[in-house]
Design goal:
Layout (H helix, E strand, L loop, with lengths): L8 E4 L5 H13 L16 H9 L6 E6 L2 E6 L3 E6 L16
Antiparallel strand pairs: 1-4, 2-3, 3-4
């Protein structure tokens, strides 16, 4: 991983579970096969809780977390934006969002 993150990967979970969209976006950001991601998603966030939050009619906004060396932001419209976290030795921040 370089000191500078690659361009963010954006994916929207329309006909797939949000967790599947996250895994595929992380794999694309890291340029690896989804089966080769070295950290399980559930080590970073509770997938069932995330799905319940997104299915809630009252949720508006975004949820951010890190997994497998990537910063992940999930929006209320089920859009996922993933970028490799910069290798700075500090806590990760939310990736830049295309169009914002």
């Amino acid at each position: 991983m370089s000191a500078y993150p690659t361009s963010p990967v954006e994916r929207t979970a329309r006909d797939e579970p949000i967790t599947e969209a996250i895994v595929w976006a992380v794999a694309e950001a890291k340029d690896v096969d989804p089966l080769d991601i070295d950290v399980p998603l559930y080590d970073s966030i509770d997938p069932d809780a995330l799905e319940r939050i997104l299915d809630s009619d009252s949720f508006e906004g975004r949820i951010g977390f890190s997994v497998a060396g990537c910063d992940v932001v999930v929006y209320d419209d089920r859009r996922v934006v993933v970028s490799e976290a910069p290798d700075t030795g500090t806590e990760p921040s939310a990736p830049p969002v295309p169009g914002e």
